[in-house]
Amino acid sequence: MALNTFFQDFNIRKTFSQFKKYKSFLGIDLGSSSLKVVQLKKERERPILETYGELSLAKYGMDGQTGRSVRIIEDKMSEALKDLIKESQVTAKQATVSIPIKDSFLTTIEMPDLSKAELHEAVPFEARKYIPIPMSEVEIDWWVLPPQSREMKAASPGSGKKKLLSIILAAVPKEVIAKYRSILKDSGIEVSAFEIEVFAFARASIKEDFGSILLMDMGAATTKISIADGGVIRSSHSFDRGGQELTLALSQSMGIDFERAEILKRQAGLLKKPENEGVASILETLFEYSSSEGERFLIDWKRKGGRAISRVLIGGGGALLPGAKDALIKSYGVEVDMINPFYKVVYPPFLEPALKEIGPSFVNAVGLALREF
Predict the structure, then answer these.
(1) Which of 2, 50, 224, 287 is disulfide-compatible with 217, CB 3.0–4.6 A?
(2) Whether 214 contacts 227, CB under 8 Å
(3) Angle, CA 5 vertex, CA 358 and CA 95 arms, to 5°
């Protein structure tokens, strides 16, 4: 079974299916602290927003507290998804579903300049060198990346260098795919495609070829960082630090419960106002860890010949932290933009304030729904 092509249109190109003119497309983002859905309708080749919704998993799992990663069994996840589908008045019966990067394996490899048929034979064989579990236990997919300018120059006539192809290789354990299929089936939804979350994030974020961009998806339990160059994802990395770490630090340092700490974090953030200075000081040290992790990622990217980034795009619930944007500008020295994924979608004007406010949290869900556009 193929993974329904993880990489179909994960760059900024668009394709359209004329026979699907009025079909609805559903994106389901299975986060660690909440679930999100976005349903779009294709009409005159435009994505029209039909419905969207978010549901906290706090009451469905163990140690459930809003804003915190929740341990949850499959039955409870299905129950939560059913509730969200009902409350959001979702009508679509098929969906594109996110695969967390922590449940997948993603890397870039180099291959000789072979024909398409030869690559189909060679890539699975080469993948054995990179994937840490038996090939019989995973589903793989891959995509040949368009060359960067430096690669084209290196392989130009007379350069004396043999042309190599850069390929993104993805693998997901079959047991992970089976688990998510079961959750969706029990919720009354058929999976039309799975997609690793970083590609959905990129699809909803990139407006045009801005050069080399750092994408940051700041979730509750993890932060995912990726490089998009030439409109395509070329490298990704994740680490187990997210918004809940900031809340826990506040809770422990100030002797308050998690819920109160979450409210304080969202209100004060990193803004060093006199009344918030204590909160900002606690959060600043932990937030700097995410920035430094991104800096190390960029150093490795440049060491491998990548271009310097021209800007940073941030999304996920953690991007809403007051002062986060300014702190990242200070760290990276480039323009930092908060992502509003709904810019690609047609919706009633009265929804503008609400969608702008929640946009960063819905990047993955919107990107998944946009997969067929």
Answers:
(1) 224
(2) yes
(3) 45
CATH number, span 18-372: 3.30.420.380
Per DSSP bridges, beta strands 105-112 and 164-173 are: antiparallel
pLDDT at 246: 93
pLDDT in tens, 131-155: 999 999 999 999 999 887 454 444 4
Q: Taking the mean position of all CA atoms in its chain, how far away is CA 48? A: 22
The two structure tokens encoding residue 141: 């997919």
CA-wise closest residue to 324 among 290, 362, 276: 290
- The pLDDT of residue 216 is above 90: yes
Q: How far is CA 326 from the centre of its chain?
A: 22
Tokens read off for 238: 């994740």
Of the candidates 199, 220, 205, the one whose C-alpha atom is nearest the C-alpha of residue 363 is 205
Q: What is the pLDDT of residues 249-282, one digit of tens each?
A: 999 999 999 999 999 999 999 998 888 888 999 9
Helices (H), the chain: 74-88, 116-127, 149-154, 174-186, 197-205, 243-254, 258-268, 277-303, 324-332, 352-358, 363-369
